[in-house]
């Protein structure tokens, strides 16, 4: 995904400000990013407001929007509620799709909103897995649980992916992680990029994600 600076995201958020206003019967403008807050505060202090660079914890349910020209209308493809854990990320640094990086800016802690994301701000012409075909318009029902300007302790993804704790990652382990955590398979090109020596495994040194302390060193 492309990375967007805080300044650019702030400008882009202004473009969706009108559609972010609460209305009794929100009208979705085709091809545009639409944000409809249906519960929670409209105004809040900056400490409780999503801005580019802040760290957010939220629940979401994603589905194919009724206006979508591709995919099964109304079909749910992913939900953090099914996993029982919030989805935690930093806004405005390209960790998520552009529709989230832009559409969430300005929402307050405690807000529930529907965000309708056009293909060019979602997964584009390529799509993402079997349930999100290329060209799909997406609907996300989001619940903003927590907002912070300070990064939380980093996750140890290595420990989460190395299911058998043998000190190396297999394709099956990485695929299983993405299916369980994100509801989609491993992103294209990730394995080739991580398995740098092409031995069929990802070593701790090769792994590019957050990984804590080398397990072999921790045992010493």
UniProtKB/TrEMBL annotation:
For whether the record's keyword set contains Glycoprotein, the answer is yes
Recall the GO molecular function terms of this protein's record.
Answer: calcium ion binding; peptidyl-prolyl cis-trans isomerase activity
What Enzyme Commission number(s) apply to this enzyme?
5.2.1.8
Question: Per the record, what are the reactions this protein catalyses?
Answer: [protein]-peptidylproline (omega=180) = [protein]-peptidylproline (omega=0)
What GO terms fall under cellular component here? endoplasmic reticulum
Q: What is the protein named?
A: peptidylprolyl isomerase
Q: Region (Disordered) spans which residues?
A: 180-220
Per its UniProt record, what InterPro entries does this chain match? EF-hand-dom_pair, EF_Hand_1_Ca_BS, EF_hand_dom, PPIase_dom_sf, PPIase_FKBP, PPIase_FKBP_dom
Recite the lineage of the species: Eukaryota, Sar, Stramenopiles, Ochrophyta, Bacillariophyta
Task: Kindly indicate where the leader peptide sits in this chain.
Answer: 1-20
**Per UniProt, which keywords does this protein have?**
Calcium, Endoplasmic reticulum, Glycoprotein, Isomerase, Repeat, Rotamase, Signal
User: What PANTHER family does this protein map onto?
Assistant: PEPTIDYL-PROLYL CIS-TRANS ISOMERASE FKBP7/14, PEPTIDYLPROLYL ISOMERASE
Q: Which domain of life is it from?
A: Eukaryota
Q: Report domain EF-hand positions.
A: 156-184
Q: PPIase FKBP-type domain: from which residue to which, for each copy?
A: 53-148
What's the source species for this entry? Fragilariopsis cylindrus CCMP1102
């Amino acid at each position: 995904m492309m990375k967007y600076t805080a300044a650019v995201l702030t400008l882009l958020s202004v473009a969706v400000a009108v559609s972010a206003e609460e209305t009794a019967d929100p009208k979705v403008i085709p091809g545009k990013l639409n944000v409809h807050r249906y519960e929670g505060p409209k105004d809040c202090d900056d400490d409780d407001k999503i801005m580019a660079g802040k760290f957010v914890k939220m629940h979401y349910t994603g589905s194919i929007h009724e206006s979508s020209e591709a995919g099964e209308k109304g079909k749910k493809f992913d939900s953090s509620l099914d996993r029982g854990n919030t989805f935690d990320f930093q806004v405005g640094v390209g960790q998520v799709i552009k529709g989230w990086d832009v559409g969430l800016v300005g929402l307050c802690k405690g807000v529930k909103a529907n965000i309708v994301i056009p293909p060019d701000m979602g997964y584009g012409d390529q799509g993402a897995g079997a349930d999100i075909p290329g060209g799909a318009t997406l609907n996300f029902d989001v619940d903003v649980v927590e907002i912070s300007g300070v990064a939380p302790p980093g996750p140890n993804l290595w420990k989460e992916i190395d299911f058998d704790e043998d000190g190396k990652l297999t394709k099956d382990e990485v695929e299983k992680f993405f299916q369980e955590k994100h509801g989609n398979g491993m992103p294209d090109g990730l394995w080739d990029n991580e398995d740098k020596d092409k031995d069929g495994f990802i070593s701790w040194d090769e792994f590019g994600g957050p990984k804590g302390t080398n397990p072999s060193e921790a045992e010493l």
